[in-house]
Every structure is written in C-alpha cells, then in structure tokens.
Amino acid sequence: MTSTAIARGGGICADSAEEGRIAIFERVAPSVVYIDTFSERRDAFSANVLEVPSGSGSGFVWDMDGHIVTNFHVVQEAKSARVAILTPGGTGGMGMGRRRNTATVGLAGTTTTTTTYTSVRPGAIGSDGSTVLPEFTRTVHVAKVVGVDPTKDIAVLKVDDVVGLRPIEVGTSTGLRVGQGSLAIGNPFGLDHTLTTGVISGIGREVRSPSGRPISNVIQTDAAINPGNSGGPLLDSSGRMIGMATAIYSPSGASAGVGFAIPADTVRYVVEMLIKKGQIVRPLLGVSILDSKQARQALGIPKGILILEVKPGTPAAQAGLRGLRRTESGIVEIGDIIIAIEEIPIENEGDLFRSIESFQPGDVVTVTVARPEIEAGIDGGPEIKLKEIKFAVKLIASDDSAFLKG
Q: 153 an active-site residue?
C-alpha cells in the first residue's frame, strides 16, 4: 500500500522527502527578504534629483533586532534600499493590492520609515490564484547600512520597529560533504520566494570578492542560483543556513548548475563583528605582491610570491622586508619572495590572505622569505642566489594603518 499526504491547499505530497521540502520552505521563507536598491539621477529637463531603481537581491533576517544580511555587491552602488519582509498577520498579504506610506532614505541615514505594501511581484501567486504563505503580510521597510565587508562580499542592513521578525536558523559549514542535499530560497529575476533544490557539488572553492581578494572555502551547489538570488540563504536538508548565495558561473548570466555560496562560518564571524563594531578589523602585513606564475618563471623564482612594494610604516617595513627597487645606477633589484608564514608554505595570493587572516592584530608571526642576492658565479660573472631569511613580524589592525586611511 502506498501512502500519500495531503498538502495545504489540497495538493498531494508524493513522499516524505517532498513533505520535508515543503515544511522547510514554509518555515524558512518568512526569514528571507527581498531587497530593492535605488540610485539618484538628475532629470535633464527639470534638474530635479530623481530616485531610480538600480538593482535587486535577496537577504535574510539575522536577529530580532532587525539586522538583515545580504551581499555587499547587492548594495554596493546604491543610494538607498528597501527591504520587503514577511511578517505574521493579515490574510493574503502577498496578494494584489495598493501601496501606502512610501518613503526613501539614504543608506547611511539614521532614520527608518516603514512602507507597507500589499502588492506582489509575479511568482508569489500560485497557478490556481492562491497566495504563497497567506498568513503573512508583506511589508516594505527602508533600511540603513550597519557595516560592510567587501573582501567577503557581506553587508549588514538594519530595519527598525518591525514586529514579528523570524530570524533564520544559522547552521555550520564545517564538515559539509559533497553529495549532501541543499536548498536555496531567493528572488531570482524578481520572482519572490523561489525555492530551488540540489546538492553540494563542491567544497573548498575560491571566488573573487568585489574587492578583488579571494573568498576561500566557498560552497559549490547545483541548486539553481540566478540573478536576484544574491544574498539569499543556502540551506541544508534540515533548513539551517549553511551558506549565502554570492555568485554563479555562467556564460549567459543565468544558472548553469554552478552556483557558489559564502560558508556560514564566515558569514557568522563577519556579521557578528559588523554588528558589534560596524567594521571588520583584520591584521595587516603591509605589502603589495605579484602573484603570477609566468612572472616567477621569467625571473627564475621557483616558489613563493614576490613582494613588489613594502608600505612605509607597516609591520613588513618595520621588520625589514624588501620590495622591488631600483638602485642609483638604474639596476632593478628583485624584492623578497615570501615562501612561508609560520612554516606553512605560501604559493599564491590566496595562501597569503588566508594565512594572515588566521591571526589577530598584535600577533607576532614568522615570515620566511627568499632574498635574492648577487654573487659571483663559477665563470666569474654575476649570479643570483636566493638566501632564506626569517623575520618576526608583529601584525597591526588594518584600520590603524595610515596607508589604508590614505
């Protein structure tokens, strides 16, 4: 005998797995928000400054205080943002209706005006005309930015005076295995609260953040992630947030079965620090580097990364590390080559960033470099030899650096 279950609204659940997905969606969807961003444009005829839509994305409720987590690139160039939230109350709050109490505020503003909508984008209404989660009302609130971390593509927004928020359950990205089930909830192409499913298809990936720095330990999934999903949660099969959707790999810009999510452990660390301090305090070494395999081969450097410049006044400068320099006679001397930090080999830019970020400002770390020195070769001509040297470098907070402050 085959058992079936009747889903809410009269649909039939074919099996327990399907029931589980429905239950997860209905539990987590109210934690997922829709974010609209706006820029300013001056009207050519009236010279008035107009607010125009500039983009959209997803996010999720972090806590009962109104903190909203999303990607930095979602709000990067916006002048203002509005967050659509599902809160308990009302009947068919996501059905068709009208707008009330429209308002706008700059992202750096300190006030928040609530705008209540009962209108809906396509996708929130089922094929039979029923609404998604009819026991919730969809309200829109003007948000302010609490803090951003471009290097991890994370931003924290805040909405005030919202009753009935449902924070997402935060899991852990530690111990994830390829093949585990994954679910993504977001707003692709403006379609509210879309659920897609798949598996974790890769772990330990690396993608570039908006700042150009690599984000490590990124989760790869084949759950469809499309434009508009950015900032939405990636869930495990229990409905816990294990990552935040950040990018897709696709020549067309639409889902090609390769999506990426920032791991939950990284999200938690960054979000908690942004809420507490409003900024991320990271340790600073104080060098610019050349991360090019071709350049290393051309210069005869077997391993490590070449220091191009040592920033004045930074820990690297105080410890005595050297960058690329030109002598009085016009000869270019190769800088130090970082080959290890705390005896852990450094092969590329990602290795360096991951290593430095594992420490705290004030920590003293051992940086091993290969220093090029010119010696007489066996034929009497000059020959470059690499001399291994260890330096004790005391890291400082990046925001304490005069260089970073300009």
A: yes
Whether domain 181-265 has CATH 2.40.10.10: the reply is yes
pTM: 0.72
The catalytic position among 36, 149, 153, 336 is 153
Is residue 73 annotated as part of the catalytic site, yes or no? yes
351: burial class by Cβ within 10 Å (0-12, 13-18, 19+)?
A: buried
Q: Who contacts 381 (Cβ-Cβ below 8 Å, separation ≥6)?
A: none
The residue type of 248 is I
Equal fold, 5-158 vs 181-265: yes
Q: Domain 283-405 - what CATH class?
A: mainly beta
Residue count of the chain: 406
Verify whether residue 3 is a known catalytic residue: no
Buried b (16+ CB within 10 A) or exposed e, 292-307: eeeebeeeebeebbbb
Q: How far apart are CA 228 and CA 54, in angstroms?
A: 12
- Domain edges within the chain: 5-158, 181-265, 283-405
Catalytic residue among 182, 201, 230, 398: 230
Determine phi and psi for 198, rounding to 5 degrees: 180, -150
Residue of 67, 73, 141, 193 with catalytic role: 73
Mapped onto helix, strand or coil, the DSSP state of residue 374 is strand
Say yes or no: domain 5-158 is CATH 1.10.760.10.
no
**pLDDT (tens digit, 9 = 90+) per residue, 280-305?**
888 999 998 887 777 777 777 778 88
- What would the two tokens of residue 406 be? 């300009």
Which residues have CB under 8 Å from 215's CB, separation 6+? Answer: 151, 152, 153, 206, 207, 208, 209, 246, 262, 266
Average pLDDT over residues 310-321: 95
Query: pLDDT tens digit string along 93-144?
Result: 333 333 333 333 345 443 344 444 333 333 343 433 344 576 788 889 999 9
Residues 27-76 have pLDDT tens digits of 999 999 999 888 777 766 776 767 676 678 999 999 999 999 999 999 98
